[in-house]
Amino acid sequence: MPQRSNLFQRLVLVLHEALAPEWNVTESKMLLDRASGELREVDIVASKLVMGHEMLLCIECRDHGRPADVTWVDSMAQKHTDLPTSKLVLWSSSGFTRGAKAKAGARKIDIVSQANATEHKWAFLARKLIGGKVQYLQPKFAGFVDVLRPGGSFHRFEDVRGMNLHDRDGRVTVSMDAMLQHVEGDKRVASVLLDHAPDGSGNFWINIDLPHELFAFLDGVLCRTHRIGFGIVTQTGHAPLQSRSAVHEDKVVTLASAELPAATLEVLFEETESGSRQVRNVMRPKPVGKLSKKPPKSPPR
Q1: What is the DSSP code string of the chain?
Q2: In the chain, what are the domains?
């Protein structure tokens, strides 16, 4: 059976992953039901050994628009009756009804309500992210090399995969594959593209300043490199941003997520009453280099 999850459950998982190192935290863990002999899925299980005995802290999460009621508390209590649960904790993103609180207390079940997580005056990001959007960018890179023939005319290498550049004596100095990999992985280039790429498709190029003379073989002749560049075709769009917040210790922690064409983006924000903010899994390097919206024309041949 495939594992089930949602954004609120992922947020609760992240919070429990910050437990002491001796705790092993697992999402969507399968536990054996002693009565039925079947495996039951538990949203989050934190386990550790105490005096040689395994302690299981089991957390069930509910992310609904209405407060959790007695029916849900009863169903969770019944589910864990025959599971090896040491302690059951119920988390609800919208709180609990009065009856649900009373039922949980009678059954010795801890409950955690996050109904008011975004109402703190200092939880600016937690409120700002509600209903937001995230911009995404998909770039495709292609390198080119222009060389000067001995007679003075130019030649362009359009496909530079596997191509090497040399010094004046013909020794390999750099590979275009390595250079392309460096440009593709440069976060500064990504930042510049995000700032300038139009919605939909875009076309850019980067011109590489040569620190010294480089040469390439053309028909067995070593020719001086005139220009090295990379064309970049971009596809830019926007995806809806989902977010869930929780109060943890003295912080409001918010997990924001967006489904992009090629991946799922998750960013964790922490805010405190003192005004300090922390953002995990996001990098904002300073823009560098100069981008033109039109690729250069091929040199005359």
Answers
A1: ------HHHHHHHHHHTTS-TT-EEEEEEEEE-TTT--EEEEEEEEEEEETTEEEEEEEEEE--SS-B-HHHHHHHHHHTTTS--SEEEEEETT-B-HHHHHHHHHTT-EEEE-TTTT-STT-HHHHHTTT-EEEEEEEEEEEEEEEE-TTS-EEEES--TT-EEE-TTS-EEEEHHHHHHHHHH-HHHHHHHHHHPPSEEEEEEEEEPPSS--EEEETTEEEEEEEEEEEEEEEEEEEE-EEEEEEETTEEEEEEEEE-SS-EEEEEEEEETTS-EEEES---PPP-S--BSSPPPPPP-
A2: 7-115 (3.40.1350.10)
